[in-house]
Design a protein that fits this description.
6-stranded parallel sheet; alpha/beta; globular; 20 strands; OB fold (Dihydrolipoamide Acetyltransferase, E2P); about 675 residues; 4 domains; 7-stranded parallel sheet
Amino acid sequence: MFDYSSPIKDLSGIGPKVLEKLTKLKIKKVSDLLLHLPFRYEDFSQIKNIADLIIGEKATITAKILNIGQKRIWKRNMTITEALLEDETAPIMSVWFNQPYLTNTLKKGLWVNISGKISMGKRGLYFSNPAFEVLGEEPYDKEMLHTAGLIAIYPETAGLTSRYLRLKIKTILDNLINIPDFLPNFIAKEFSLIALRQALQKIHFPKNKEEIEEAQKRLAFQDIFLLQIYSRNEKEKIKSKLAQPIPTNLPLIKKFITSLPFQLTNSQKLASWQILKDIEKPTPMNRILVGDVGSGKTVVAAIAALNTATQKQQVAFLAPTEILASQHFKTLSNLFKNWPIKIGLLTASHKLKSGLDKIDIAVGTHALIQKNVKFKNLALVVVDEQHRFGVDQRASLLKDPKHSAIPHLLSMSATPIPRTLALTIYGDLDLSLLKELPKGRKKIITKAVSPTNRGKAYQFIENQIKLGRQAFVICPLIEESEAAIMSEVKNATAEYEKLSKDIFPHLKIGLLHGRLKAQEKEKVMLDFKNKKTDVLVSTSVVEVGVDIPNASVMMIEGADRFGLSQLHQFRGRVGRAEHQSYCFLFTETSSKNSAERLKILVESEDGFKLAEKDLEIRGPGQFFGSVQSGLPDLAMASLKDASLIEEVQQAVNLFFQKDKIANHPILLERLSEFKEDIHWE
């Protein structure tokens, strides 16, 4: 027997190899599999006669197997299985590649359902690698999971197909008695939401599109409800905590700002004032600073750090990678070179030269929050490019039970997002936006490059490198699945080999992709930063925030496959020094929609406007992945539905008017899990 929270390994037929593949899809429990939702559906709702099939369409037939056999093509190391099928109107061939076991399943004389794409070959129409289901010796009706109706297609990994996932999910839904639901009954009733079991049944095995929409609303609603409940709870928790008040030393701040070699923008001044007023309070600041690439977030954080450090209180400045931590260390060291402030760097490979108690500002990676690291009087934590760092994590930095206070928190993000979306996602954080770029910054010349002009672009890149500059080449990610990531790595490797051998054989080319270990990635980026390589070929893992001032060209392959915000982030990797910089958008498609979308990027450098456009065109998934937000993709996609967001907010208000979280143990449990999902530890 198993229940909703049972380990997935408890299901029959889940051996070590399958378990390893399921783990890659983050499926560890029965509930994880039920919530592994389809990302699209194949429409096999119409069963057609063979005589009515059309080349290129996807269709389903019910037919009898007249013959089946297989042959091996040794040169290609390939097995081809061919079956001759027939219904009352005509015969047709069906072909499968590298599935020799099918001859043991599909026997002569059996009736089958076949669903797939119709192709044309030398011998006429045929099905290419279709899905199938055996009906038996007679074409009787039976429940079809793979070849009739709307068929769910799931995110997959190598060796684990949608067919397999469909079968397992069906088995679970048929045998699971209790599916615990954290959404209170009175909320579901008030907002006309179907039960969780119904939603899961309809999302995986829908009878029509209306059922899909009904299920999607229920599942998206509950996840956004959870986010809002979490945010409300976290805000209340923060209000009950104490922090060290840091008075604003206005003469000191003015002196520092005057000493800078540039003028602060109005946005920087406003954000700095908001932060300084927050840390004056005896309750912990919980603020996020969102600004476009190059908008000057670090200087704003430095003002708060200076005000804190000069009052005998410590500052921790956290970055997600060693490269970013080292970069921040150098930037802060330069900003404070004429000030009596001691700055230290602590990462896995760089230890502090003196004790932490003698450091005013400690810059580092997660090494700063290890158990053996003890601060003397930590009052401010700045976290770069990590959107969540909660009360418990801040409390853990103190390591001293005598302290009743917890540090103030300033998070920073270089992902411009629409304000309404930011307030929804970061409901527990106060928001500061940097919407201006410093004056005098050169505009990055952006051009969409047609295939006919590819050679000219390569020549331009070579000329830039002769001038002493460097270039990025970004390869596209098609879908976020294990197989697609491997495909992305393959594409990047192929691009690297093409550029190394055919295009720039005399230049030094680097390669960066998601299958490299963390230390390998750091070495590749450091080599590029230190000008040991001329061109860096990278997948979309290229680090946000990494500063390569000498890079002047960003070339993006398959630009139509990225969102505007992501393209804008890539573009922001160049143009970070005095050199004129360029961004080339390569695309092989002639689609009018793609051309119009890329034109928006060519004409605008305003990250917030591009974010609004992306929200309109592609949805919130462009700004936050599920790893960053803790929200499943379905809930993320629904964040652009203003009416749904409004309904959820009404539901949360109603919940707190009528009830308490403590009365709902299932909700408490889910909140605890959600907290683990969204915090960086």
